[in-house]
């Protein structure tokens, strides 16, 4: 597999196939990320189009990057926020803010779940994650789904690196506390499993 | 870090552990695999923690493959259409040069448009032209006349310049914006109305059929109080000074509306002058006819001139004895 850096560099030299490759790899992720901020799928597609058209136009002046993912996530977030802000100003556009943002759900890969107790554990963890404030959920998302560094998360979400780190720390702590009361359950099932 | 007292919950909320499960990071994989080998008694806790983490998923929002492919095609099409420009974009020096050139061209164009390139309508002898302005106002431009306006600024300012004669039907705008005509040193301002202007040499004559217009001389000094015309009035200025103001039969002055030239009890001297202005021929009559007057209605076309010639010949019992391309001689 070609490395991100190689793809990025040949894209910067005007290689259309590398450009396509970047789209194929990241468009879907960008879409999913953006969907957490807006339910307007056309607006999101427009932003993705604008982003890719823009990086193609500016390819010669774009610097080297070690993380295409970071670069694109940051750009799409910025673009989308700006467009949503414009919509709000000019059209009193009603975005569907009631939708769950960065909502965590049970994994569709059901094979992780084998017992009723697992299901219960999962439900408790889900509740715990989803009860985190939205900004914390986004930070968690960027950390654990997009594998971004704290530096990168700080840049994207316009918070300091320290804050980003604290958010993850606090979120994990909260989770740990909320999950504390089920520890006995885990132990119990561990024993049960061993006995089997 | 000592992970030995960790329960499944602790693991499930441990940063490096989550990242290992979520992303399969190589270094983390090395570390946790090794740690598990060293602590086989923790296998159950770790498995439970892994299961916990893996069972949690960010809600995926479906994006149909079709729309994804569709968007890709649009982006690629847009990108490829910009390929040709690539070379030009290479050097920043070229870009600056382009910007500077662009600015020069733009300002030159603007200057050209503003100063030198209004929309001009010009009629030759014996030809009238009907003009519909951008606001749907209608102008009939008489022969040997010239009308011009700045198309670029029309939406800001309805203003035209006129040399010669024209009949106007100005459409009143919803915002009551003024329609301005500059001609013969007189500024005629109207809202919506019908009137004719005849501006030849230093004299300008305005005849108002309906509506209201306001006249003011174009002077460098403090402008004189404008004159508000009433329908049915004729006002004449010579050298920017009002020399005549009277009620007239406006129909006689509105012939141009139908592209007609109307004479009613018009002195032959005046007829000759108008024929010279509109058809480009000077008429020469015997001295005895000098004080005669004349009535006729002919189209402002060269055919109309032919009709006019025969009417004059019949009315005054004269014959055309000589005709050049600039003069017609009538004699008894």
Model description:
- Chain A is mainly α and 196 residues long.
- In chain A, 70% of the residues lie in helices and 2% in strands.
- Chain A has helices spanning 4-12, 16-35, 41-57, 68-91, 116-130, 134-144, 150-157, 161-180, 183-195, and one strand at 104-106.
- In chain A, helix 5 (116-130) packs antiparallel against helix 8 (161-180).
- Chain A is elongated and about 55 Å long.
- With 332 residues, chain B is of the alpha+beta class.
- Helices cover 34% and strands 32% of the residues of chain B.
- Chain B has nine helices and 19 strands.
- Chain B has helices at residues 8-12, 15-23, 26-38, 43-55, 65-81, 86-89, 92-116, 268-279, 302-316, and strands spanning 56-58, 119-122, 129-132, 138-141, 146-149, 158-170, 179-183, 186-190, 193-200, 203-210, 213-217, 227-229, 233-238, 241-247, 260-267, 282-284, 293-299, 319-323, 327-331.
- In chain B, strand 5 and strand 6 (158-170) form a beta hairpin.
- Chain B is rod-shaped and about 140 Å long.
- The termini of chain B are far apart.
- Classes of the chains: A mainly alpha (196), B alpha+beta (332).
- Chains A and B meet through helix 2, helix 3, strand 1, helix 5 and helix 6 of A and helix 1, helix 2, helix 4, strand 1 and helix 5 of B.
- Strand 1 of chain A pairs antiparallel with strand 1 (56-58) of chain B, so a sheet runs across the interface.
Question: Any key phrases for this structure?
Answer:
heterodimer, A: 196 residues, mainly alpha, 9 helices, 2% strand, elongated, B: 332 residues, alpha+beta, 13-stranded mixed beta sheet, three-stranded mixed beta sheet, 19 strands, 32% strand
Question: Gist?
Answer:
The complex is a heterodimer of chains A (196) and B (332). Chain A is an all-alpha fold. Chain A has nine helices and one strand, in the order ααααβααααα.
Question: How far from one another are the termini of chain B?
Answer: 131 Å
- Provide the helix percentage of chain A: 55-70%
- Continuous helix count of chain A: 9
Return the structural class of chain A.
mainly alpha
Give the topology string of chain A: H per helix, E per strand: HHHHEHHHHH
Strand proportion of chain A:
under 5%
**Rg of chain B (C-alpha, Å):** 42 Å
